[in-house]
Amino acid sequence: MIGVQWGFYKFYTSQFPNFKDATTTIHIHGALLMMWLVLLIVQPLLISTGRNKLHKTIGKVSWVLGPLVIISMFLVGRGSYLRHSSQVPATEMLGIIVLDMRGWVSFGIFWALAMFYRKDSSAHMRYMIATGIIGIGPGIGRGLQNSFGIDFGTALTITDVMDLVIVGVLLGYDLYRKKNYKPFLIVFVVFLIGAILWQIRYTDAWQSFAKSYAAWFY
Fold first, then answer.
1. Which candidate, 63, 165, 50, 73, places its Cα nearest to that of 114?
2. Domain range holding 167?
3. How many structural domains does the chain have?
4. φ and ψ at residue 35, rounded to 5 degrees
5. What pTM did the predictor assign?
């Protein structure tokens, strides 16, 4: 939550209430993501204080909020591409598609698995944690760029490494304690694939794929 506020303060939050470039879709997207992060904070607190019934009741919101988050992620990426495609070199725009696409795809995978395993608290908890880790890139990545002048590509590489280290530690902990390690193994693989895609965003293979993907925007 702190990382997201840090990253988006300069070009979004600080502009309240006279936002300059934010569209309605961006506002809705931001509100949905804040609701999701609040949910991730509140739900484990309810469990730890023994209010399991209330946890399950509030959890039903995930059935609606999750898909809305996924849709908003796709629409924000689409809107950004359409707004900037005439101003930014095509190679760069097709490279940025990695971030937009892996965001909603990764969230969709983790959300779907969390809901599928909702009766298995061990797996459910781990996939829900993964949906929160996704926020590290957009938040802290922009924070590094805005506060320290780190170029965007490097900032995202740093946050990709952060994601992998965090999930790797959690995976290692599960293996050491002989807990259910499979969820974090799946999460690690998804993040690893996303990190690799970011590093190969300028290759002919990705650029060709991104062109086909971008065709959906029109």
1. 63
2. 2-217
3. 1
4. -60, -40
5. 0.93
